[in-house]
Amino acid sequence: MKSSLSNYKLIFWDFDGVIKDSVNVKTEAYLSLFPNIAKETLHRIRNHHLNYGGISRFEKIPLYLEWAGLPSSSFDIKKYLDQFEIFVVQRVIASPWIPGVEEFLKRKPLSQKFVIVTGTPENEILEIIKELNIDMLFDRVYGAPTEKEKAINLTLEEFHIDKESSILIGDSKTDWLAAQSTGIDFLYKESELDEFSKQFKGNKIRDFLGLI
């Protein structure tokens, strides 16, 4: 990793847990979908979500329905996806900023490009960042169903930026794997809830206060 984020031409951003402190919002949303299942299954769902934060709900909800022993037809999955969206959007908007990140984003130099790569559905993340008045700060926004690896490769090709000049800021093993597979640098935004934080030995930050 370069000595400063200002030395990168392109910064990829995860959203939940990196820009907004909204990981708990998503956790509560998943658990609220299954109020009557066994506590052991709820615990399994919670741990899976926290350890695989970068995976989209389109993959998680069918899996959790299977674990809960509930019907998982396309109709059922859509019903749960709709419930999830209703629960999360305004709560994510209202959740706290990761300390220092709002100021960091708004000081973006003209020479640098910012791109969101998130497991949140694309239409939803576009709505959220517009409500937060930060949509104009991002040169591209990728959400589900576009996978992070694909989004990264598409951006590198579109902007003709070298991998060595690009970095992903993420808070999960999924994010790290996306950076690894595409050959770009990675900065881990630590999360006490993520088991990966105990394993990761690379560059990490707790917030953006020292980076403003």
Automatic annotation (TrEMBL):
Record's catalysed reaction(s): 2-phosphoglycolate + H2O = glycolate + phosphate
Q: Which UniProt keywords apply?
A: Hydrolase
Keyword check for Repeat, yes or no. no
SUPFAM superfamilies, per database record? HAD-like (SSF56784)
**Looking at the record's lineage, which domain of life comes first?**
Bacteria
What GO molecular function terms would the record report?
hydrolase activity
As recorded in UniProt, its EC number(s) are 3.1.3.18
Q: Which InterPro entries match?
A: HAD-like_hydrolase_sf (IPR050155), HAD-like_sf (IPR036412), HAD_2 (IPR041492), HAD_sf (IPR023214), PGP-like_dom2 (IPR023198)
Q: In which pathway does this enzyme or protein participate?
A: Organic acid metabolism; glycolate biosynthesis; glycolate from 2-phosphoglycolate: step 1/1
Q: Which family does it belong to?
A: Belongs to the HAD-like hydrolase superfamily. CbbY/CbbZ/Gph/YieH family.
Tell me the protein's name: phosphoglycolate phosphatase
- What is the native source organism of this protein? Leptospira yanagawae
Its lineage reads: Bacteria, Pseudomonadati, Spirochaetota, Spirochaetia, Leptospirales
